[in-house]
């Protein structure tokens, strides 16, 4: 049988697997412990930190969606990243990460490196020279985040994996922005895929969660051991909710994308909009690579607001259908000012180096009707222009 398409895997995983009552949708098992059938007879699940049926089903879905051999579901995306470094890196080892990665990832790696847990090098991974000189230092781990946050920079996964593997580094791709609907890093050579399932995977802004999917079975076993050891694993309730969210992943990603395209076309005609960052734009530096490795462009976009900080604040305040909030990938549209919100922990200098300007605004385009979203943006731009 041919491998099913992601949307089908998302809908069908675990359906009709209940042998007791034949429930079509798999039930939730909240029990913290499972009895041993007899003395010394270890059951499949014994204690919920180390494993439980709901987490197992979600791991199966995510592993199949990402073409992996196994997965470990964690209690958040950050703990998935922390689990990854905890399992594979020691005090003298180096990790290479993008300088415009998710703010919390930057804080995690930077703080742990300062404590002496490992070394970290943050670079612009789309800069080939910076990448080559970082790889010459023989890192143990390389993290890619493509498209990155918030500038949606694109890195060539296949090429970078080849170069990293040549120096024996293991590569993980944070695939939170694309999801397996639009990008399959393991098929492009990555050893791991990491998600904040908090975002598109769950998709309803009501669960915090994460996952590491592995290319090899051995890495999955190693990470499962470490996940249990450091207590990074996800709960049954969160796993149940996330699998419920995943059911509609294919359909959601399609509408997210359609609406973003409409909004991009609108933004490109606005006087108050400067540079727009989105991989679908032909002038975006990563456009060609995105076309090669992604089957969609996604619905995260950023733009420079062409006006004073006062006007920017007024614009954001005038919006009614874009909530001013962190996070992304939910059904509701969001607007974020990275420099003062998601990325403030980076500090002024690192922000500047990563090219994240004070005038940058990031949109997570939700599933409201795109005509309503555009009308809302129109009203907000008009309001700011009236007071010029
Ligand atoms: C949100 C996010 C994370 C962190 O995930 P949490 O679930 O918030 O811990 C990591 N990477 C990216 C790209 C994210 O957007």
TrEMBL record:
Pfam families, per database record: Cys_Met_Meta_PP
Coiled coil spans: none
Family: Belongs to the trans-sulfuration enzymes family.
Protein name (record): O-succinylhomoserine (Thiol)-lyase
Source organism superkingdom: Bacteria
Source organism per UniProt: Vibrio algarum
InterPro entries: Cys/Met-Metab_PyrdxlP-dep_enz, Cys_met_metab_PP, O_succ_thio_ly, PyrdxlP-dep_Trfase, PyrdxlP-dep_Trfase_major, PyrdxlP-dep_Trfase_small
UniProt KW keywords: Pyridoxal phosphate
Keyword check for Transferase: no
Cofactor: pyridoxal 5'-phosphate
């Amino acid at each position: 049988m041919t491998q099913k398409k992601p949307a089908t895997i998302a809908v069908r995983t675990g359906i009709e697997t209940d042998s007791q009552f034949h429930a079509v949708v798999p039930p939730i098992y909240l029990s913290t412990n499972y009895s041993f059938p007899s003395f010394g007879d270890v059951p499949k699940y014994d204690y919920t930190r180390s494993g439980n049926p709901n987490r197992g089903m979600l791991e199966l879905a995510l592993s199949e969606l990402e073409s992996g051999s196994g997965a470990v579901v964690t209690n958040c995306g950050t703990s998935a990243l922390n689990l990854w470094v905890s399992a594979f890196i020691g005090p003298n080892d180096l990790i290479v990460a993008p300088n415009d990665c998710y703010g919390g990832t930057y804080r995690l790696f930077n703080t742990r490196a300062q404590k002496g847990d490992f070394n970290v090098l943050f670079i612009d991974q789309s800069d080939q020279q910076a990448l080559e000189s970082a790889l010459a230092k023989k890192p143990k781990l390389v993290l890619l985040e493509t498209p990155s946050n918030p500038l949606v920079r694109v890195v060539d996964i296949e090429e970078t994996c080849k170069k990293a593997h040549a120096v024996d580094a293991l590569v993980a791709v944070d695939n939170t922005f694309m999801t397996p609907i639009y990008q399959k890093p393991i098929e492009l050579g990555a050893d791991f895929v990491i998600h904040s399932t908090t975002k598109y995977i769950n998709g309803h802004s009501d669960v915090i969660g994460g996952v590491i999917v592995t290319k090899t079975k051995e890495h999955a076993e190693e990470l499962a051991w470490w996940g249990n050891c450091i207590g990074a694993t996800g709960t049954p309730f969160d796993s149940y909710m996330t699998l419920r969210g995943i059911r509609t992943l294919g359909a959601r990603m399609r509408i997210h994308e359609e609406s973003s395209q409409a909004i991009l076309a609108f933004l490109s005609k606005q006087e108050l909009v400067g540079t727009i960052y989105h991989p679908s734009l032909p002038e975006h530096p990563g456009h060609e690579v995105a076309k090669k490795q992604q089957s969609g462009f996604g619905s995260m976009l950023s733009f420079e607001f062409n006006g004073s900080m006062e006007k920017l604040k007024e614009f954001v305040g005038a919006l009614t259908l874009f909530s001013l909030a962190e996070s992304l990938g939910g059904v509701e549209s969001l607007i974020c000012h990275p420099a003062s919100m998601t990325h403030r922990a980076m500090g002024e200098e690192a922000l500047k180096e990563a090219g994240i300007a004070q005038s940058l605004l990031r949109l997570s385009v939700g599933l409201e009707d795109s005509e309503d979203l555009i009308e809302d943006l129109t009203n907000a731009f008009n309001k700011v222009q009236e007071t010029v």
